[in-house]
Write a structure and sequence with these properties.
heterodimer; A: alpha+beta; D-Maltodextrin-Binding Protein, domain 2; Dipeptide-binding Protein, domain 3; four-stranded mixed β-sheet; globular; B: 331 residues; mainly alpha; MetI-like fold
């Protein structure tokens, strides 16, 4: 009976497989995690999984979220109130002409491999940053190290907040005893390039000739150094941060407290474990299971409530993400090119309803379209100023009147026609993120209800930039007023109105517009000027002018200010989470892990009571 | 060509297929809309508050790709590299594509082969039973199960498994290929942990494919049941079980060999969604990442491996089929 035997063997194999699984399950449960007595914090993050993971922060692949626990900047920046908190730097002093920034470094700091941290390490990091086109080098002339614990940044011209912040918040991750050999060949290249740039300026060469001759040779030499640097892929990740990376797998990372760290005495957390963040849906599962202590997935209201219900130790904090979700209008395409039409659209949309559907925990933005996010509006614009500006509150009646006055009319079915009698057909392009899609869909439904044929097109992330540049859209969803990193409106207006800005390119905003007094406002020029060091009154004046331009000409329509939805578990493994009023929460937009680390180094987060 | 033996012909056509497939993949990658450097630059611009020019410069230094190199030259370099056995360097990671594949493939093979073994054996057994007792309860159940599982996307089922067995019941781990506490290597703790972590991905893989095997076997067995030799066997008074296994089962399973071969080849491509949901570091995981980041060389390498595996498996199936069924000859 060979056939019966064959089937029997097959069945046995299958059973064996299941048995092996069951045994594994049983034994691993028995082997289980015994309570080691350690205080463990569990978070979630992203990194390139092995074999792409390595300890060189410069080379592609690299360290991902591990950097937050292992590397530190000179200062931590709170963009909400534009405050700097000492980290590797203890204090800073700017010269009167704003061309020199002196930073005193913390003494006694050590790298994880035991080497002392000195000013040389700061210079090494910045020199290699030059090779990687760090934007700070546009203004940075050089860095000096008068002693082991002092660093002096010398600027080519007075340094504005934006560049100062760039210099201070970069993570210092390249110890000179490891990366010095790559920094060494860059110095002569920097000198060579500076000389070449002077020569080019003298000769009046245009930017187009940049790749010719000497410049081409310099780029080639820089590339050669870069390639050598990229081939260095150490297993160890060295930093000065409060935690040392111990293990990395495709799904988890483990860090242990760096006993010789400068803040070790205050830190009550012995170990950090990080789960890899595959998607928001999986993170919800991790939160419900109590697998992680904190995470900030974008979450609809119902799901958030369900998570809280299923995990009673969980609570939420909702600090601002310092950006607004909204629409970008294509001024290069009819009927969006018509300001009256844009005004009507802005008035026909119930923005608060969109917020409730798209991102319940956002802060409503219902009146103006300023470029500046709602939570920072009062820092730059007084209520008296705003009172004089046009509001775009939800009012379908007003929207109808605007359209009728501009020559638009409805057809027999109630759909709007252009003054030329063409039926209006609009498209909202959006990324596939659930909150974006829900927002776009809600806006589209409202416009359809108002009598405008409108539909939503979901565009893949990789094609979104191309879509925006091509101008092949009527409206796109986008984050606006983004001051997440530097807390500086300069980047916002550069983006919305500046030459080559991400949004200005997409919406085809003109270089000049008429101001309230009939005079021409050169918006490209003003947006550029805002990136320079300016006396405060001039800076405020430009911000006011550009805000007026955005509100008047409506290239964008903010819908809500995004608040981060941070889920925190109190008392399972850690406790002591500060409430939402703690200023450190305002740094969530610069990187959530940075906030967790700060709570640890301040001694706020402790083990379970 | 006439002088070539059937085996040589088969090898020749297989090589042509590989060449066409890799050329097609190469072209397809480059024809995808959007500029990879531009995309990186725009992402950096938004993330770091840079101007577009600043961001573009940074993006070009990070990527191991120069879009200004003419396509024919890129193609020539790619083919030249392949002939030397070099799959190229990943654009994003700047490590050899072969290194990534060699690291990821064992995990995919482990999970997918277990899943294939379970789904094929159980599916064939159920299909055979359904055909044999086609007026019984099992037949409509198998058909219903197959229709249902084909209709449910595998990632949805994977999510359900995750929520039920990992989140609620906590029987299985939520993610990964093994526990972070164990040291990968030839030790019992590692093997047990790997098996424990593999259970949910294996079930997710198996769930959807099992119904297909059952239906195929059922259809194949039904056609064999009408053959004269089955009637002769019955007329001879042979035992039902012997007819079912030796006469029907053996003949009905033969057409499934080709499908099995393709499935074996296809499993090397992994399952993007399942591996991503379970954080499983297999080929599918890297496929998903490579597609998301437009890592052309990595996508090409992974496609090539999958194509080769399917062609070789097909080739092997043809040979095995001709040995099993003497009526079929390799042509």
């Amino acid at each position: 009976m060979p056939e019966r035997r064959n089937i029997f063997v097959l069945l046995i194999s299958v059973l064996l497989c299941f048995a092996a699984g069951a045994a594994a399950l049983f034994l691993s449960s028995c082997a289980g995690k015994k309570d080691s007595g350690k205080v463990i914090f569990r978070g979630a993050g992203s990194w390139e999984i092995p074999p792409a993971f390595h300890g060189n922060p410069w080379a592609p692949g690299g360290v991902g979220s591990a950097s937050w626990y292992v590397h530190e900047p000179l200062f931590m920046f709170l963009p909400g109130n534009r405050q700097f908190l000492p980290r590797l730097g203890l204090s800073m002093k700017e010269s009167k002409n704003h061309k020199k920034l002196t930073v005193k470094l913390r003494e006694g700091v050590k790298w994880h491999d035991g080497h002392p941290f000195t000013s040389k390490d700061v210079v090494t990091t910045f020199i290699i940053g030059y090779l990687h086109h760090w934007a700070v080098w546009q203004l940075l002339e050089g860095i000096e190290t008068p002693d082991e614990h002092t660093v002096v940044f010398r600027w080519k011209k007075p340094c504005p907040h934006l560049f100062k912040t760039r210099a201070l918040i970069e993570k210092i991750h390249s110890p000179s005893h490891i990366y010095g050999k790559w920094a060494a060949p860059i110095r002569p290249l920097m000198k060579k390039e500076a000389e070449y740039l002077k020569f080019r300026k003298r000769m009046g060469y245009s930017a187009e000739t940049r790749k010719e001759g000497a410049a081409f040779e310099i780029e080639k030499e820089k590339k050669a150094v870069r390639e050598k640097l990229y081939s260095f892929k150490p297993v160890e990740l060295t930093g000065t941060g409060p935690f040392k990376l111990v293990t990395v797998t495709a799904s988890d990372m483990r860090f242990e407290k760096f006993a010789e760290g400068w803040a070790a005495g205050k830190i009550a957390i012995d170990e950090v474990q990080m789960a890899r963040w595959p998607s928001n849906e999986i993170i919800w599962a991790f939160l419900i299971a109590g697998e992680i202590d904190a995470a900030h997935p974008a979450t609809p209201k119902e799901v958030a409530e369900q998570i809280i219900k299923l995990n009673p130790r969980m609570k939420m904090v909702t600090p601002s993400d310092l950006a607004e979700f909204g629409l970008v209008f294509n001024l290069g395409r009819e009927p969006m090119s018509d300001l009256e039409f844009r005004r009507a659209v802005a008035t026909a949309i119930d923005r608060d309803l969109v917020r409730k559907i798209s991102y319940y925990y956002g802060t409503p933005v219902t009146a103006y379209s300023l470029g500046i996010i709602k939570s920072q509006r009062s820092d730059w614009l007084s209520p008296e100023t705003l009172q004089k500006w046009e509001k775009y509150e939800f009012n379908p009646q007003k929207a109808e009147e605007i359209l009728l006055a501009a020559g638009y009319k409805r057809n027999a079915k109630g759909f709007w026609l252009t003054p030329e009698g063409k039926k209006i057909n609009l498209e909202i392009s959006t990324l596939g993120n659930s909150d974006f899609v829900l927002g776009a869909d809600s806006i589209s439904s409202q416009l359809v209800k108002f009598g405008m044929d409108c539909h939503v097109r979901i565009v893949m992330g990789q094609l979104y930039g191309t879509k925006l540049t091509s101008g092949d859209f009527d409206m796109v969803t986008q984050f606006l007023g983004d001051v997440r990193r530097y807390g500086d409106p300069a980047t916002v207006f550069e983006n919305i109105l500046g030459k080559g800005g991400y949004i200005s390119t997409a919406c085809r905003f003109p270089e000049e517009v008429k101001g309230p007094d009939g005079k021409t406002i050169k918006v490209h020029k003003l947006a550029k000027e805002l990136r320079e060091y300016l006396p405060e009154p001039r800076r405020r004046e430009i911000i006011r002018t550009l805000s007026w331009v955005v509100n008047k000409y409506l290239p964008i329509l903010p819908v809500y200010e995004k608040n981060m939805l941070v889920f925190i578990t109190e008392g399972k493994r850690v406790s002591g989470w500060p409430d939402e009023s703690h200023p450190m929460w305002s740094a969530v937009s610069t990187g959530m892990e940075g906030v967790y680390i700060s709570f640890m180094t301040e001694g706020l987060l402790k083990g379970k009571p | 060509m006439n002088r070539l033996t059937p085996l040589q012909k088969k090898i020749f056509t297989s090589l042509i297929t590989v060449f066409v497939a890799l050329s097609f993949t190469f072209a397809l990658m480059r024809l995808m809309p959007g500029d990879i450097v531009d995309e990186w630059a725009r992402e950096l611009q938004v993330q770091q508050g840079l101007t577009y020019q600043e961001a573009y410069k940074i993006a070009t230094t990070r990527l191991n790709y120069d879009p200004s190199v003419p396509l024919p030259l890129q193609y020539a370099r790619y083919i030249g590299g392949l002939l030397k056995g070099n799959l190229g360097m990943s654009l994003n990671y700047r490590i050899p594509v072969s290194t990534i594949i060699l690291k990821a493939l064992p995990w995919t093979l482990f999970v997918a082969s277990l899943a294939l073994l379970v789904s094929f054996t159980v599916g064939v057994f159920l299909g055979m039973l359904a055909a044999w007792k086609r007026k019984g309860f099992l037949d409509p159940c198998v058909t219903f199960y197959a229709s249902l599982t084909q209709a449910i996307p595998n990632f949805l089922f994977a999510l359900i498994l995750l929520v039920v067995f990992a989140v609620r019941l906590r029987w299985f781990p939520l993610r990964g290929a093994y526990d972070i506490d164990v040291v990968p290597g030839f030790n019992l703790a590692f093997f047990l942990s790997a098996f424990h972590h593999a259970v949910l991905p294996v079930v997710a893989f198996t769930f959807q494919t099992l119904g297909g095997w059952a239906l195929s076997m059922r259809a194949s067995a039904m056609s064999v049941l009408g053959e004269d030799f089955v009637m002769v066997a019955r007329a001879k008074g042979l035992k039902e079980r012997r007819i079912a296994v030796q006469y029907v089962g053996r003949n009905a399973i033969t057409p499934l060999i080709t499908s099995l071969a393709i499935a074996i080849g296809g499993m090397l491509g992994g399952a993007i969604f399942i591996e991503t949901i379970f954080g499983y570091p297999g080929v599918g995981f890297f496929f998903g990442t490579a597609i998301a980041t437009r890592d052309f060389t990595l996508i090409q390498g992974l496609f090539l491996i999958t194509t080769l595996a399917i062609i070789i498996a097909n080739f092997a199936a043809d040979i095995v089929y001709s040995k099993l069924d003497k009526r079929v000859k390799l042509e």
